[in-house]
Design goal:
The protein is rod-shaped. The chain is mainly α. It contains 2 helices and no strands. This is Chromosome segregation ATPase. Keywords: Coiled coil.
Length: 103
């Protein structure tokens, strides 16, 4: 073989080696990204696993708030009734204390 042909083949082999090196480098980068994605997926899985517990806590809190609202409504009604009775009793006391002013 001629020297020029050998140089041409050598040049082609070097060119292919450079391309292979770039491919290997790209592949190593992709492997690193896959590892990072797998780690992110594991984190997401653990967070998703907590969703039922969070949902249950929200439902429990909602039930507690509903009970508090019911008790508060009952308390408001009781206070309103007591207020009316207090005003009524105050008027009766005034009538008893000042019978002439009531006429």
């Amino acid at each position: 073989m001629s020297e020029q042909l050998l140089l041409q083949i050598l040049h082609e082999v070097q060119s292919h080696n450079e391309r292979f090196d770039r491919i290997e480098s790209d592949l190593a980068g992709l492997k690193t990204e896959v590892v990072a994605i797998k780690s992110d997926m594991a984190d997401l899985k653990s967070q998703v696993a907590e969703i039922p517990f969070i949902k249950q806590a929200i439902m429990d809190t909602n039930a507690t708030v509903n009970r508090i609202e019911e008790k508060q409504e009952f308390s408001n009604q009781t206070l309103e009734l007591l207020s009316v009775r207090s005003i009524d009793q105050e008027a009766r006391i005034k009538k008893l204390m000042f019978p002439s002013a009531a006429k």
